[in-house]
């Protein structure tokens, strides 16, 4: 069973692995690269997506992204399976310290990891 992870108004309707130190170093490198290149990925049009403290809908909401928001992805982590406009996935994107969004609502251009796994 999947869970939708978004906030949509009616008018708008029309990652853990065994290489601990290496993964941490990769995450730091990816964070530096994202900051240097300014790569940002768009949230699906017409959606306001909840930002949570962890990779699942049971985690506390810290904020909701506005329409047409573009976000950095510093690392990704497996978590709760969510269905969104870009399919069903268990990937969650880390967009800031302790802040995650469901990857199914972010257009990255491909399925699967596009950033290192979060430690």
From TrEMBL:
This is SH3 domain-containing protein. It comes from Streptomyces californicus.
């Amino acid at each position: 069973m999947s869970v939708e992870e978004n906030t949509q108004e009616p008018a708008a309707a029309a990652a853990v692995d065994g290489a601990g130190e290496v993964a941490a170093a990769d995450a730091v490198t990816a964070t530096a690269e994202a900051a240097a290149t300014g790569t940002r990925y768009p949230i699906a049009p017409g959606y306001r997506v909840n930002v949570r403290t962890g990779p699942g809908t049971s985690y506390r909401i810290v904020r909701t992204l506005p329409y047409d928001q573009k976000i950095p992805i510093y690392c990704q982590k497996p978590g709760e399976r969510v269905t969104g406009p870009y399919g069903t996935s268990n990937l969650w994107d880390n967009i800031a310290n302790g802040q995650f969004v469901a990857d199914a609502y972010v257009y990255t251009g491909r399925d699967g990891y596009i950033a290192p796994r979060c430690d």
